[in-house]
Design brief:
The protein is mainly beta and 132 residues long. The chain has a domain of 86 residues: Immunoglobulin-like, CATH 2.60.40. The chain is built from one helix and ten strands; from the N terminus they run βββββββββαβ. Strands 2, 4, 5, 7, 8, 9 and 10 form a seven-stranded mixed sheet that branches. It has a three-stranded antiparallel sheet with strand order 1-3-6, with no helix packed on it. A hairpin with a 2-residue loop joins β4 and β5. It is elongated, with a radius of gyration of 22 Å. The chain starts with 13 loop residues before the first strand and ends with a strand.
Length: 132
């Protein structure tokens, strides 16, 4: 009788798919992050890093986060995935957060007067202004 012993080959997470719903936003806007990875041991936790620091409540098994961008600046996000074989890390996603969101009421008023009674579809745009 011939016996063989097999050890399953486990791989740390790789082939990351990490994305942000937006990469340029105004302060106060919400960004959705999604992350997934492959590995020959199921990923059991995903972590979101902001500028190489773990985000509060940034660890979960879903790989999905919503972040309200309350401060302006450039932020670098990464996703870390963990399984029984080890840890892997995604490429970074840069997010630029501009000043506070301001709806230009004067422009909207003029558009409203112009389109009164019209069936034309209008796309409204938000403008970011930097605080003085």
């Amino acid at each position: 009788m011939k016996c063989s012993l097999f050890f399953p080959l486990l791989d740390k997470p790789e082939n990351f798919r990490f994305a942000a719903s937006e990469t340029e936003v105004c302060q106060g806007e919400v960004i959705n992050f999604t992350c997934s990875a492959d590995g020959n041991a199921a990923v059991h936790t995903y972590q979101l890093l902001e500028n190489d620091v773990l985000v509060t409540n940034g660890s979960n098994s879903h790989g999905m986060w919503n972040r309200t961008m309350s401060v302006g600046g450039l932020f670098i996000y990464k996703c870390v995935a963990n399984n029984t074989a080890g840890t892997g890390q995604s490429e970074s996603v840069n997010v630029n957060v501009n000043g506070e969101q301001l709806l230009q009421h004067v422009v909207l008023k003029q558009i409203s007067k112009f389109l009164k009674g019209s069936s034309t579809l209008v796309a409204l745009f938000f403008v970011c202004v930097l605080p003085n």
